[in-house]
């Protein structure tokens, strides 16, 4: 049985990990051949491809194990590797590069344990086309390679950043870094001491600013976004989560929003901190999202998602301290504004925001991805959508599935599965490892179960 996995990020790699574990545990399992396709040669994906040790996970280590049932596996691995110890080992934010190493290690171990029952092969190329052939799929890559499989897993994630903010085409500007997560993308900026404008004020900006500020003593970094809001930070100590009973929360956005506010305020009153309230709601988000109609979902995405994201996706405390220090010293400025013009000048790029004009040596794009998967320009997604092998929710947030199995334009399940960000339309809270690992485990079982069921 052959399974093609498009995308070797956290999602695709975790699917292979769980497939390997399943076949290793079952003597009667049919041998699996897994082909993973990705143009980027780094298992774990762009988010975890950074080599800067100051780029930390934004989820505590106890939430990052590859197996949701072994909560402290990553913590134990970090201890065994010797880069945390003592009290810190219970609640800490590891460098993202270490998590990539951990994932690769666990993946290699799982494949080894599966022995002859699983063979995994990596094809370094982008998938550009998908066709259903008989009961299986045919995937074509950019260089024309054809990969036939019985099942396809779409694990393409979302691009780390989008370019929707730009008032003009900047793709030819050498002083514009369109995607800081591409390998070595920041190298020319780090090698220079010039001032930098970062577009976006979220977690990617925080990481980029930390790298830039430590690379030059006199450099100033300005960060701009429409709202000028920074992500909140995690608490210094572990506070736990208080998962609410949502049975009486209603099913309209107004009701649910009010109930969330009441829950979080109550927890803050009781525990002196709002974070356990927000973190508890996380466990209910997919179910609450399922109660909303399309109009309410649209309103949430347009008007409330930003507020939720800055509280839910928080920066590690140590990153928060670096940001505070840099803002106090004036080396990091965070402001709200809308960019209306960018012009190349000999000293760099002149940026217009309203009546204000400033020149920077570099612009680094740290804005969020385009929210509509139909407009991402990812050829493999365009291919499945154009062929009617998949459809999206009305907002285009993700693909329509039955528990991860993609439904075609007629609502029928086919040979394609997906997970992670491509399920945002159904679950909303689905882009980070704590959610992706559980989906990967279920998806692996579903792939094999379905394969067995159709033998
Ligand atoms: C800067 C940053 C920091 C983050 N930190 C954390 C964190 O600390 N903890 C956490 O839980 N989450 C974090 N996240 C969220 C993170 O995106 C997810 O946890 C995880 O990386 C998503 O994995 P993924 O495999 O779905 O997507 P990705 O990691 O984006 O991987 C998708 C892969 O698919 C490939 N691909 C796309 N299109 C094609 C194609 N057509 N053909 C072949 N391959 C293709 C891409 O090259 C990529 O390698 C972070 C995200 C970012 C951007």
Structure notes:
This is FAD-dependent urate hydroxylase HpyO/Asp monooxygenase CreE-like FAD/NAD(P)-binding domain-containing protein. This protein is α/β, with parallel strands linked by helices. It folds into three domains: 2-159 and 370-453, 3-Layer(bba) Sandwich (FAD/NAD(P)-binding domain); 176-232 and 314-365, FAD/NAD(P)-binding domain (3-Layer(bba) Sandwich); 253-312, no CATH class. The chain is built from 13 helices and 18 strands. It has helices at residues 10-24, 73-81, 96-114, 187-190, 203-215, 253-271, 275-282, 285-291, 294-312, 317-328, 379-386, 424-427, 433-453; strands spanning 2-6, 32-37, 118-123, 127-133, 136-141, 146-149, 151-154, 176-177, 196-199, 221-225, 332-336, 339-345, 348-353, 356-360, 362-365, 401-402, 405-407, 413-418. The strands form four sheets. The protein has a seven-stranded mixed sheet, with helices on one face. A hairpin with a 2-residue loop joins strand 16 (401-402) and strand 17. Helix 1 packs parallel to helix 3. It starts with a strand and ends with a helix. The relative contact order is 0.16. The model is unreliable at 451-455 (pLDDT under 50). Residues 6-12, 37-40, 45-47, 57-59, 96, 126-127, 155-157, 160, 204, 378-380, 420-421, 431-433 line the site of flavin-adenine dinucleotide.
């Amino acid at each position: 049985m052959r399974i093609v996995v498009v995308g070797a990020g956290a999602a695709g790699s975790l699917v292979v990990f769980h497939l390997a574990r399943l076949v290793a545990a079952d003597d009667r399992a049919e041998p699996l051949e897994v082909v993973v396709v990705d143009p980027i040669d780094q298992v774990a994906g762009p988010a975890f491809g950074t080599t800067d040790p100051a780029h930390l996970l934004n989820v505590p280590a106890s939430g990052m194990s590859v197996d949701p049932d072994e909560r402290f596996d990553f913590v134990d691995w970090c201890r065994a590797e010797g880069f945390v110890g003592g009290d810190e080992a219970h609640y800490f934010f590891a460098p993202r590069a270490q998590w990539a190493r951990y994932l690769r290690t666990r993946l290699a171990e799982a494949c080894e344990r599966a022995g002859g029952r699983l063979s995994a092969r990596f094809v370094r190329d982008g998938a550009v086309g998908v066709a259903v052939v008989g009961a299986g799929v045919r995937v074509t890559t950019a260089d024309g390679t054809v990969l036939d499989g019985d099942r396809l897993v779409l694990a393409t994630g979302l691009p780390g950043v989008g370019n929707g903010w730009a008032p003009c085409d900047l793709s030819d500007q050498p002083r514009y870094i369109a995607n800081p997560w591409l390998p070595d993308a920041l190298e020319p900026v780090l090698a220079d001491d010039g001032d930098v404008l970062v577009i976006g004020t979220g977690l990617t900006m925080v990481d980029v600013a930390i790298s830039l500020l430590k690379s030059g003593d006199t450099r100033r970094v300005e960060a701009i976004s429409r709202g000028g809001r920074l992500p909140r930070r995690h608490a210094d100590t572990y506070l736990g989560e208080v998962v609410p009973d949502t049975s009486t929360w209603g099913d309209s956005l107004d009701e649910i929003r009010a109930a969330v506010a009441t829950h979080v305020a109550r927890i803050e009153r009781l525990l002196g901190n709002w974070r356990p309230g927000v973190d508890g709601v996380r466990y209910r988000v997919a179910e609450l999202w399922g109660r909303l109609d399309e109009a309410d979902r649209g309103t949430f995405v347009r008007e409330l998602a930003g507020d939720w994201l800055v509280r839910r996706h928080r920066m590690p405390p140590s990153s928060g301290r670096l940001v505070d220090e840099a803002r106090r010293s004036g080396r990091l400025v965070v402001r709200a504004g809308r960019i209306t013009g960018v012009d190349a000048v000999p000293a760099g790029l002149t940026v217009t925001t309203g009546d204000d004009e400033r020149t920077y040596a570099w612009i680094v794009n740290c804005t969020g991805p385009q929210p509509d998967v139909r407009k991402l320009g990812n050829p493999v997604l365009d291919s499945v959508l154009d062929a009617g092998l998949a459809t999206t929710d009305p907002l285009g947030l993700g693909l329509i599935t039955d528990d991860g199995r993609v439904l075609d334009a007629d609502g029928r399940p086919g040979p394609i599965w997906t997970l992670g960000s491509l399920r945002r339309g159904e679950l909303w809270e689905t882009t980070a490892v704590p959610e992706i690992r559980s989906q990967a485990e279920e998806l692996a079982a579903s792939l094999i179960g379905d394969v067995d069921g159709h033998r």
